[in-house]
Specification:
Chain lengths: ~700, ~500
């Protein structure tokens, strides 16, 4: 099999060029805002909005051009140092298919709404231009992940996304919690990225390219004939491409998604990341970046072996349940939403693991919409309370739900959005979450039904349990924040209000998009245009919907969410005193997210410190000493050489000189200038050479 | 009619052969134009002469380029006195660009030391050096070869003495005396070869080989020593440090590249003829040139890099580094394969570029310290000129042979070529050369990094002035050189594709 045609350059077409523009636009925004940040002032936000609008327009245009029509691929050689010996040809390009353009529109849309929301939310921040610049950098990197056709470049943008996430979490770096959270997010992501890097190396050693299309094709060929040679740049390499290799590659790739999409056991960074500005949480830590892991899994899906899929479903289900459980006892409004995000990401990963990929990607889209809506609504709550705080001079924690209540009268639009998006989240019939989540649960049940082992039923059970808990905590949250009596601190002379179109407009859009009517048949996920288009991108043209096991899976899921919802209403709707119930070990478990942070502290962080200090000591006492010794010995050696130079070499020269002096006054001229002795030396060496080589 | 045409034949063929000399003829014309302009023009002499010289070299480059496009295979002409192949035309281009760099540097020095009346002579000498360098690899006759070697040497002596001060004269006289000795040895070697083969043509070397005589080997060795003197290789390198110290920087830019690479290319030709001659004599005891050249390359690389460690004078440091790079390129000659020649020419191109950058740096530093060339002039410079600091660091990385620079690619390719040769022949000498090359690259790290180290980590002497006249033009030149070096890393295959397309003697 020849590698060269698989990675041959492809022409830059009109569509791919447009995609490149979409990619570069936010980067321009980043550069302009970054360089002119001190001079722009209020203009910065409008500039970012304008760029976002253009980007969205182009994305929608691309969507129309590509969706269910064809795919476009542009590829060029980045650099080639093969030189006829080693196959070292690095390509880069842009690949457009249904999945790509869907993600493109989603990211552009939510980024635009978040930027608009930030116009009001970040108005008073002194460094607002820097904020929009970082948002631009983030959007550029995210678009990069979506558009490029090459795992190496996905990795590069992957790291850039990590960087911009780090910058934005730590945007208010004066707060210690924000700085620490940024560091934590960065480090936990690095653990996952290590897996990505290992996957890249393994893939390269097997396929000699990182182009996704080429790898998929080669792997397909490899599964037809179990081993074959790959010729690359004149060199034929025998490639093993066994299932074992591919399983490890798949698991290593999954590690990347575990880090970025906050899966067990690396999910602890996401709740802390809420220390960033709320719009950032909505864009990066709910809708787009954390979904990048799921997107990556969907892109490289054909490479996954059955074992990898099993790992995916187990980890996904576990994360979903743990996230939902941890959301129960939180009181910080953003943390509840963060744990809910973890839980939903777990659902998506599980969905991919049980081969309900189109449902998982569908859920990725719907979740992005309603979770961004929830976060922006929470942002609106926080913003209005901050305004109130500033106006009335009272001090209160604007994120603590224990201090809230009865807010629906004051901020009705926020309340409405929150309820609509919340219904989307729990998957209420008629809302977007219903279609996608039902698809995942149905896929899980079908998967368990086909599996030989009875334990496989654990996965759908966990999914349904997650669904139940989701309904419970979100309805609890709505009751706590929006119903009941107004809290005592609220005095009438400074009303709590939601202000400005910049706040309201994104809420309205996202709230409306949470209805299921936009995505096809409002009550049947199988008839959704979105799921169909996605599965066409992933599985090719033959669209086979997941096997329908009657309607009882849907009934089961509905029952679960009704049970969860009813329990929440029964418990908290009647008697609000339950909110302040005594600490129970289960509650503490939930509140501390299974004490994962403490466990990591004991298992990883402390031992690392011990190891570090031990190594430092080793370094000081053993390595440094030996290096010093080496240095000293070198100096000694140098002195010896210098001595030899002085006595032997120079001595010989003087010896020759003295000899010549002694030889006679006739040759005196021979000695005085050093160049003669040099010639003499050369001649001596020549004689030496003759003695050695010429016989 | 028959007879007449027979008489005219040589003339016709001569006029045809002159076609192959187009670039050289342009240089010759330029040479004389400069010479007469120097005598005739009185006003604005510097401007006139430098623009004449530059346009002459540009025209030469154009003709070389057309020759490069037009030439397809190796040709022999002038009754087999000369030969020409594409690799030779390629180095003509390198030399031309280097000469341009040298002339620009010469303009930049603003003749601090050289009075205006010598401007013309200086350009005359630079172009003469270029002429000799491009002709040398074309030689296919021992006499022509000897004449060109002498031509190169004499222009070299004069350029070395152009600073017109004590150290300059000292360097030049040492160079001259040593060169005279080397010429004598080489001439003796040539006469031995003539005696053994009965022919002045280099290609006829194989004739003498069947005699299995030590005398032919001795003759070859003496000729090799003459070539080594030009490349400045052990044991014929001793003249170089003081000559470089005394010579004007702009002159060394050319002096350390053109004659060296020309002689290397000639050496390549010679060794390939020896190899060809060996075919058919399955056991030839007399001349293990791989062994000898390998060991001399090892000694040169290790010795020169070690010697550079102790230098505090920038120019002497660069002189030793130039000896070291000569050793590396000599190791390239050892491979004697098509890939090896490509890597050797790649190395030469990168080396020419780096060298230009280094001596531009020397000039800048000279401005700062009023004519001192001490390495301490770099102290704390990066805090005053941060951009220059970055550029210099990259340049030094290239000298060491670290990514992301062309220096890395050059060494990487050269070592791969040596490794390949080792794999094919299994001779232990190659692995020793390989190891010595790697090791001396490590040694070189210490003295090259000394410059960035001083720039970044040493405090600024408050007495030291800024580089007062560091203009954007200086930055631009430095920047272009560094960018070119980086391009040779990232897009190394651009140049390699050209080099791979050259046709080879082997």
């Amino acid at each position: 099999m020849d590698l060269a045609p698989l990675i041959a350059p492809m022409k830059l077409g009109q569509e791919t060029f447009q995609a490149l523009i979409v990619l570069v636009l936010p980067l321009c925004s980043f550069l302009i805002l970054g360089f002119l940040r001190n001079r722009l002032g209020i203009l910065a936000g409008y500039l970012a909005t304008l760029v976002g609008l253009v980007g969205l327009g182009l994305s929608v245009n691309l969507f129309i051009a590509v969706w269910n029509y064809t795919t476009y691929h542009f590829r060029t050689t980045w650099f080639d140092i093969s030189l006829g010996k080693l196959p070292l040809n690095f390509t880069v390009g842009v690949y457009l298919d249904n999945l790509t353009v869907l993600m493109l529109v989603m990211v552009s849309l939510i980024a635009l709404l978040v930027i608009i929301f930030s116009l009001a939310y970040m108005k008073d921040d002194p460094q607002v231009a820097k904020y929009y610049a970082f948002l631009g950098l983030f959007q550029f990197s995210m678009m990069g992940i979506i558009l490029v056709d090459n795992l190496l470049f996905i990795f590069i943008f992957w790291e850039l996304v990590g960087l911009s996430s780090y910058l934005l979490i730590g945007f208010w770096y004066q707060k210690t919690s924000a700085a620490l959270a940024a560091k934590k997010a960065f480090l936990f992501n690095k653990v996952g990225d290590l897996g990505f890097m290992i996957a890249l190396m393994m893939l390269w050693s097997q396929f000699y390219t990182l182009d996704i299309d080429a790898i998929k094709f080669l792997w397909q060929q490899a599964s037809l004939s179990d081993r074959f040679t790959l010729s690359a740049g004149g060199l034929s390499v025998w490639t093993d491409m066994s299932d074992t290799w591919m399983t490890w590659i798949g698991i290593a790739l999954f590690c990347a998604a575990v880090g970025k999409s906050a899966q067990f056991p690396l999910q602890v960074w996401l709740p802390d990341a809420m220390a960033g500005p709320t719009p950032v949480s909505a864009l990066i830590h709910a809708a787009t970046m954390v979904a990048a892991g799921v997107y990556l899994l969907a892109r490289v899906l054909p490479l996954f072996t059955v074992d990898v899929m099993l790992v995916l479903s187990i980890i996904g289900a576990l994360t979903a349940l743990m996230g939902a459980f941890a959301a129960l006892a939180q009181s910080d409004i953003k943390k509840i939403l963060a744990y809910s995000t973890i839980s939903q990401l777990g659902m998506m990963v599980m969905g991919i693991g049980v081969y309900a990929v189109e449902a998982a990607v569908f859920h990725l889209f719907t979740h992005a919409v309603f979770k961004a809506g929830l976060f922006l609504a929470a942002g609106s709550v926080i913003h209005s309370l901050h305004q109130y705080e500033a106006a009335s001079g009272q001090h209160l924690d604007a994120q603590d739900t224990d201090q809230m209540g009865g807010l629906r009268k004051f901020i009705p639009l926020t309340f409405l959005t929150f309820v609509l998006c919340g219904l989307g989240l729990i998957g209420f019939p008629g809302f977007s979450g219903f279609l996608s989540k039902e698809g995942i649960i149905e896929g899980a049940i079908a998967w368990a039904n086909n599996a030989d082992v009875f334990a496989a039923w654990l996965i759908p059970v966990m999914a349904i349990l997650t669904s139940l808990l989701t309904a419970f905590y979100i309805i609890k949250l709505i009751i706590k924040v929006f119903f009941g009596k107004s809290p005592q601190w609220l005095v009438d002379d400074h009303p709590v209000r939601e202000k400005g179109w910049a706040i309201k407009f994104p809420l309205v859009v996202l709230g409306l998009l949470s209805f299921s009517i936009w995505y096809g048949h409002p009550f049947d996920g199988h008839q959704s245009w979105l799921g169909e288009g996605v599965s066409r991108a992933i599985f090719g043209n033959e669209f086979v919907p997941t096997i329908i096991e009657g309607k009882w899976s849907m009934v089961l899921a509905l029952l679960a969410l009704l049970a969860g919802g009813t329990m929440a209403i029964m418990k908290y709707g009647v008697d609000r005193s339950y909110f302040t119930e005594t600490v129970h070990w289960l509650k503490s478990m939930s509140y501390h997210n299974f004490h994962l942070d403490a466990i990591y502290m004991i298992i990883f962080i402390r031992p690392s410190y011990y190891l570090a200090s031990a190594i430092t000591r080793f370094d000081q006492h053993v390595l440094d000493r030996s290096v010093n010794l080496l240095g000293i010995s070198q100096v000694v050696f140098a002195h010896i050489i210098a001595w030899i130079d002085r006595t032997v070499v120079d001595g010989l020269v003087s010896l020759v000189a003295k000899f010549s002096q002694w030889f006679g006054a006739l040759f005196r001229w021979f000695v005085h200038s050093r160049v003669q002795s040099k010639i003499l030396w050369a001649v001596l060496f020549v004689v030496l050479i003759i003695l050695i080589w010429i016989r | 009619m028959e007879i007449q045409s027979n008489i005219l034949d040589p003339i016709f063929s001569l006029s045809q052969d002159l076609n192959y000399f187009r670039p050289e003829l342009v240089l010759l014309i330029c040479l004389f134009v400069c010479f007469f302009a120097d005598l005739l023009i009185k006003k604005n002499k510097g401007l006139w002469l430098s623009s004449l010289a530059i346009s002459g070299v540009l025209a030469y480059l154009w003709f070389s380029y057309t020759q490069f496009i037009g030439l397809e295979e190796e040709v022999y002409f002038m009754s087999d006195l000369m030969r020409l192949e594409r690799s030779i035309v390629f180095v003509k281009l390198i030399f031309g660009v280097t000469t341009l760099g040298a002339i620009i540097l010469a303009i930049k020095t603003k003749w601090i030391q050289i009075p205006l009346s010598h401007t013309g002579e200086y350009y005359f000498m630079l172009i003469a050096l270029l002429l000799g360098s491009v002709l040398l690899p074309m030689a296919n006759n021992w006499l022509v070869f000897f004449l060109l070697m002498e031509f190169l040497s004499i222009t070299g002596y004069i350029i070395t003495s152009f600073n017109r001060d004590k150290s300059s004269y000292e360097g030049a006289i040492k160079y001259l005396l040593f060169g005279a000795a080397a010429s004598a040895i080489m001439l003796y070697g040539i006469s031995l070869i003539y005696g053994m083969t009965g022919s002045m043509s280099i290609g006829d070397l194989a004739n003498g080989m069947e005699l299995d005589s030590g005398l032919l080997s001795l003759g070859l060795l003496f000729v090799l020593l003459g070539i080594f003197f030009k490349i400045a290789l052990f044991p014929m390198h001793v003249w170089l440090p003081s000559a470089y110290q005394g010579a004007p920087s702009s002159g060394i830019v050319l002096l350390s590249v053109a004659p060296k690479v020309a002689a290397l290319l000639f050496l390549w030709h010679l060794t390939s003829i020896i190899e060809l001659g060996k075919i058919g004599f399955d056991l030839l005891p007399m001349f293990q040139w791989q062994q000898m050249i390998g060991i001399l390359a090892i000694i040169t690389m290790l010795g020169a890099n070690a010697a550079a460690l102790w230098q505090t004078n920038v120019k002497r440091l660069l002189a030793w580094s130039s000896v070291g790079h000569g050793g590396f390129m000599l190791a390239g000659v050892l491979t004697l394969s098509a890939f090896g020649q490509s890597t050797l020419l790649f190395y030469a191109s990168v080396y020419a570029l780096m060298n230009m950058g280094a001596f531009l740096l020397v000039l800048l530093i000279k401005k700062r310290t009023q004519n001192e060339e001490d390495i301490n002039a770099f102290r704390g410079l990066a805090s005053l000129h941060p951009f220059l600091g970055v550029l210099v660091t990259l340049l030094m990385l290239s000298f060491i042979g670290l990514p992301p620079t062309g220096g890395f690619m050059a060494k990487f390719l050269l070592f791969s070529a040596i490794w390949d040769t080792y794999q094919q022949s299994g001779e232990p000498i190659y692995i020793w050369v390989f190891a010595a090359g790697l090791f001396s690259s490590v040694i070189s790290l210490f003295y090259y990094m000394k410059i960035p180290y001083l720039m970044y980590f040493k405090p600024l002497n408050s007495k030291d002035p800024k580089l007062v006249s560091l203009k954007s033009l200086d930055y631009l030149m430095m920047f272009l050189i560094v960018v070119a070096l980086m391009v040779l890393f990232f897009k190394a295959n651009w140049l390699m594709n050209i080099l791979n397309s050259l046709n080879f003697a082997l």
